[in-house]
Design a protein that fits this description.
With 101 residues, the protein is mainly α. It is built from 5 helices and no strands. The two termini are 44 Å apart. 3% of the residues are buried.
Amino acid sequence: MLRHSNCSGTTAAGSGSADASSCNANALRTADWLPFAAAPTFAVMAVLTGLLDGPPDMLCAAAGDASGLTGMVPMYALMSAFHSAPWLRLISSWRRSAHRA
């Protein structure tokens, strides 16, 4: 069951500013972490596709194996690599802060 927060902007006193700023802060914190979801999601999709992939479609089978980069597994792996920048920045900031201490 989904939980819905009361972010309508109204409070018991009627001012609405406290709830609205709280909801905006929560949304911004969530948005800050959203880029971290892409790389692991694509990595899991690559692994699952590699393990559970059945026979290729007839259209793909007719083309043959022209390149090692054909198919869904390499595509998901590349997408995971391309979306790894937020993780690399986070790891870099951890290493910088540990090095300073």
